[in-house]
Amino acid sequence: MKPSIWLRVLCLLFTVAFIGCAQEPSVQDPAPQRPAIDGGSEIPADCSAVGADPFELEAEGFQFGTDCLRVAAGVAFRVELKNRDEEPHTFSIYGEGDEVIFSGQEVAPGTDFTYDVPALAGGTYKFQCDVHPEMSGQVFATS
To answer: What is the reported pTM?
Structure first.
């Protein structure tokens, strides 16, 4: 080959290598990809942020102390259910199509139990008491 062809080949290889190195590596969400109910819901201003470990969730008068939880996407968290009623309650999380994301055990009346909840992918989920499904709310997993 002529020297000018070699020069062109080297320039082409250098360009391809440079463009390949300049691209940012893809970063994948470490959270399991589970379908959320709705990824575009707005988070209410009074939504309780799960920051304390564990987050204390009271069940009294057949309702939860909050109907909105905000958690960090991709980060496992703990919820301590404090059952102040005279019947058992649970804490479960559901995704799209009522897919069970997390199903917590029953908490006896007058007792407390701490659930270890796995990381959620970003999005909006429903939480509820499986014994009393009218006791429900939303979980917003955000970055």
So the answer is: 0.73
